[in-house]
Amino acid sequence: MKLLELHFSQLSKIWNRSKNNTYSDTSRKSYHNKLKKLYEQLEKEKLSLITDKNEIKEKKAILAFFSESIAFLDNSTVNTLPFELVKCLEIALNEWLAGEDYIIVTSLAKGLNEFSFNPSLATNYDQYEIIRSNYKIEFEKKLIQINIPEYLVGDYLANVIMYHELGHFIEVKYSIPDVILKEFLDDYSNKRIKADFHIYFPFVRKRFSEDGIYSDECLTLLKTHIGEYFCDLFASQYIDDSVNHYLSYISEENSITKLHPTTRNRIKLVNSFLNNQSSYTLDKIKYAIKQWTEKDLTKRYKVFNSNDFIKLLPVDIKHEKELHYLFIYGWSIWLKSWKKIEKENKMVHALKAPKVYEILNDLIEKSIGNYIVKTTWENVSSKKANRKKA
Amino acid sequence: MYLLKKQIEKKLNKDLFIRPLLEADQIGELTVDFRLGYDFLVSVQGREPFIDASLNNAETSRHTGNFFHKTRRRPGETFLLHPSQTILATSLEYVKLPSDVLLILNMRSSYSRLGLMISTIIQPGYCGCISIELTNANKNPINLTVGARVFQGRFLQLDGVTNYFSTERKYICSVRPQLSAVTTDSDLELLHNYFLKNNG
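The joint structure predicted for all components is written out below.
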């Protein structure tokens, strides 16, 4: 199969450029080394002689897995990985999947709104099994691929959306839409559905008749919208209503699309959750998530009381849950008048928006960076002290 | 008058801020040790013939960023500085100075002896990581450890207070090395007009 060889040649070109990548941590390095072993095995194979359709399909999937893995690792080297942001996402991830082995990797996209999650390497367990059985190579850790706009890597205000994208991984991992949908369908068939449901899923009443809800089209739409609502709620556990500000700006749609509920409804649900308001839809979502994941949808950030950004200082973070609050704190300053900063620092000239944008992003980045350095330093120092004692 | 250890400690977290201060003994009798930060801008040779610090060739000159390459390290990793190479780095520490204290920054003598030279003055009221331009004057490459105590600062107490923000500042709260913004200097505009008058 000559086209498999073409695919392998493309992959070789990528690998030659990336094989000596350096990473900032052992888990990415270890994944890279596994790819190296896989490459060495693939190199020995006579791909052009494969004729069996199933085998061709399998090899094609392995080659695709390889090139996708290296593409994301390429953007996750020490030079390119926005490790401050990834640290915050890892903390959130560990709360939902403690002890499970995932590595967050990023790919830099060109468009300014190209935030997205790609589930292929995190949840496609078959491909790992094929590699294990064919080549005896075990990838213990799987990659969670998140796309982030290249030009917004240091933009912590916009990057609140990354919590939403991480939510998509949790959504896929736990099959959240299926679980919640089952709850709604049970209630629907037992006439227990409440009016509130039709506010969040208005297309059910408008476009589908009594039994139409069970049509493939309606079920797919329901699942997609449930997924989006879940990701909004997931994100708001960590960054409160910060995501609403950016969301309402970049997606003005107040009509339903195949992929998203209306922005108005998304914001409404998040606000109900954050204000501890009870509603049929929200309560049902919370209940189903608790039943299935044993996790509560709840505010998971820790508030700190600080005037540091106003004084142009990074915040001295004491607890990892305070890291999430930095985004909320940054947004709260952005949305208010900047006169306070000018007054506190005796500025003669008024601050312009691009300068405040730089200041807030720099202060958030440094606050996270300082926390990472300090905790690592304390860890290393205590190990050194223990060795001395011993 | 230079601030002594006790005076520095007394000001710390009141009107002098150093974050993070990883070890208390970074504060010496007369100086504070600062560490090498993890972000760098490395000078590279591209196809452009020169960096233009004038406005006289505005149509053809390229952005300064074309002459520098961004790179990051983690503390404990190293950065290899080649002979005659210039890099822009920062201190690991974010500092905010009182309005009546000037900071004079030099290399620690162990690093000066390797052929690394800097001499920087940081104005009272400054806030941000300290921007450092490092050039290797040695004939051999030097492998620097990120996070190491490389610089040493002396704090000079002034007789009166100054206002750092009395003028519009180009760099506020910078935490990564910043490219030179020399072409935004207002006097360059005047000099450019002067040039045009004679050559336009």
